[in-house]
Amino acid sequence: MIRRASGGPVSARAVVLAMLLGLSLAAGGSALLLWSTGELANAQSAHTEAVRASENRQAARVDKALKVAADRANSDRYAAQVAADAAADSAAAASGFSRGGEGVYYQLIDRACTASTCVHLEVMVRAACPAGVHVVGRLLRSSASIGAVEGSTAALAAGEITILELAVPGDPDTIQITEAHCLG
Amino acid sequence: MRPMTRQKRRIRPVPCLVLACVLGAAGTAGVGLAVANLGTANQLNADTRLIEVTP
Q1: What number of C-beta contacts closer than 8 Å exist between A and B?
Q2: Which residue stretches of chain A have pLDDT < 50?
Q3: Which of A79, A150, A180, B21 measures 20 to 30 Å from A107, CA to CA?
Q4: Residues A147, A78 within the same domain
Q5: Based on the structure, what is the number of domains in chain A?
Q6: Which residues lie closer than 8 Å to A46 by C-beta, 6 or more apart?
Q7: Nearest CA of chain A to the CA of B2: how many Å?
Q8: Hey, where are the domains in chain B?
């Protein structure tokens, strides 16, 4: 038996027991702390990964939505363009014009020639042609090609109609316009 | 002449008890921190699951 300063007895066994208890608490607490720190690190890592994946999914969704919207807009624009082209073609055809190149229409007209033999074309454009319209024709006699004619108009504004005279060499019985397109 | 007796090693009670208290307190604090860590980890895991199931 040993004695405390105050005089009360403290058994050596109690002291040893207290030490053992303290030691086991410290060891257990340390082990638990280490384990829980690992668990926390794992959870933080998984959380960060999930947040990154979620952000990537969100970005992909936004990209897809933008692409769909852009495709739809392009498709709408293309459909509107096709409809406008068809309407313009119909209107030109109703006025007797044939379709040449993109947005270019022509028709043969009777008119007095400035040269000996010629053909007159009325040329109409839907959009402006700053460098004019170039026309090429094939000259045929008895279905045989005997030459070609070509000529260009001056600059044309959108919707403008002009008359183009092409001098015709030889004595063809048919003139086929093979090309009529906007320059520039 | 005093007889030769085997001297018994005595335990000093007060420092030992103080040390035991310090160790116990450290262990208790460690357990508290561990519980806090586990709580945070659980919360993070729940958030992670929520993020993963969100389309």
Answers
A1: 112
A2: 1-7
A3: A79
A4: no
A5: 2
A6: B44, B45, B48
A7: 23
A8: 24-55
Which domain CATH number covers A175? 2.60.40
Query: Which residues in B lie closer than 8 A to residue A2 (C-beta atoms)?
Result: 10-11, 13
A86 and A105: one domain?
A: no
A17 and A44 co-located in one domain? yes
- Whether residue B37 is predicted with pLDDT greater than 90 in this model: the reply is yes
Task: Determine which of B16, B18, B28, B35 to mutate to test the interface with A (most A C-beta atoms within 10 Å).
Answer: B16
One-letter amino acid for residue A135 of the chain? V
A36 vs A50, A103, B34, B38, B47, CA distance in Å? 21, 76, 5, 6, 18
Report chain B residues whose CB lies below 8 A from the CB of A43.
40-42, 44-45, 48
* ipTM at complex level: 0.77
Nearest to A2 among B10, B37, B52 (CB): B10
Q: What would the two tokens of residue A98 be?
A: 């044939």
| pLDDT value at residue A10 | 67
A58 and A146 fall within a common domain: no
Same domain, A102 and A138: yes
Residues A2 and A87 in one domain: yes
Residues B4-14 pLDDT 10s = 565 566 667 77
The secondary structure of A113-136 as a DSSP string is -SSSSEEEEEEEESS-BTT-EEEE
Using an 8 Å CB-CB cutoff, list residues of chain B that contact chain A.
10-11, 13-14, 16-17, 19-24, 26-31, 33-35, 37-38, 40-42, 44-45, 47-48, 51-52, 54
> Domain range for residue A138?
98-182
Tokens linked to B24: 């116990």
